[in-house]
Every structure is written in C-alpha cells, then in structure tokens.
C-alpha cells in the first residue's frame, strides 16, 4: 500500500510541477526568484524574522547569499529592515506593503488552481475531510523534517471543509 501511495504522490508531484511550469509558473511574481517568493511568503506568514531565523529556514543557502537576497529585496522595497532592539548588531526583517502586494497575483493563481482541483475531484464531504486530514498530516511531516514545527502556524483540518 505504501509503495503504491508513494508512486501516486510521485505522479501527482510531477503533474503539479508540469502544470506550474506550463501555465507560467510564478509569473505574477514579476522578477522574483523562487527563493525570493518563498522568503517573502515566509515573512508574510511570520510577520517578522531575524537573519539567523531566516538562515535556519533556508538551510541550504549560505549566509552571504541570504544577506545578498535580503539586501536586494530591501532595495526593491519588498522587505523592511530594522535593528533588533535586543541586539543592535542584528536586524529584523518584515514584509512591506509592496512586498505583500507582490505575493497577491501568485496567491490568487494558487487559490484558483486549488479550487479547480478540489471541485474537479467531486469529493463527498466525508472524502473531503479524509483528504484534508491527510494533507494536514503531510504538512506536519514536512514541518518536522524541516524543523518548522514551531515556526509556522499549524494547519487545522476543519478550515478545509
């Protein structure tokens, strides 16, 4: 059963990636890279974060690359930077209104696609609840693997019904 499910998830993953690529990807994000978009999305979800927290979130990104990315986003006025009052050597980063606005076209596309998929599955309310529970469990697994359990707000299956 697990082997079959793994194959099904792999096939779904391929189709999602293919759809994103062939439908223009994150076109609405303008000149933002995938990393830029995820960083802005993270700041929007968190409110604000210090450099070390962002570096911890992007484990495979070197501190110098993270610094350059934040500097670029700050220059584009997508991210605000201020001194950390607890440590004047450190900075706190937050999303600007312009940064939040840059996320909207992509989020709208994602919401539309999610709704199309949900509608096309024609699930009963019971089936929908089962899928929502499975998605919540998958998200918790990813959070645990990535060390995000305490960083992102937990999903609630009742929000998906």
Automatic annotation (TrEMBL):
One Gene Ontology biological process: response to stress
Domain HTH marR-type: 25-128
Molecular function (Gene Ontology), one example: DNA-binding transcription factor activity
Transmembrane segments: none
Superkingdom, natural source: Bacteria
InterPro entries in alphabetical order: HTH_MarR-typ, MarR/SlyA-like, WH-like_DNA-bd_sf, WH_DNA-bd_sf
Name this protein carries in UniProt: Transcriptional regulator, MarR family
């Amino acid at each position: 059963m697990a082997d079959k499910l793994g194959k099904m998830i792999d096939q779904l993953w391929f189709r999602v990636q293919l759809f994103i690529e062939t439908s223009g990807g994150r076109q609405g994000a303008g000149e933002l890279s995938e990393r830029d978009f995820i960083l802005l999305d993270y700041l929007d979800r968190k409110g604000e974060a210090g450099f070390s927290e962002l570096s911890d979130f992007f484990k495979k990104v070197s501190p110098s690359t993270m610094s350059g990315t934040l500097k670029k986003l700050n220059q584009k006025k997508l991210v605000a930077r201020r001194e950390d009052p607890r440590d004047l050597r450190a900075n706190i980063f937050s999303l600007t209104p312009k940064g939040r606005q840059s996320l909207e076209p992509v989020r709208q596309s994602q919401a539309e696609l999610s709704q199309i998929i949900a509608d096309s599955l024609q699930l009963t309310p019971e089936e929908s609840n089962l899928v929502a529970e499975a998605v919540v469990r998958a998200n918790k697994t990813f959070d645990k693997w990535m060390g995000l359990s305490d960083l992102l707000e937990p999903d609630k299956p009742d929000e998906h019904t």
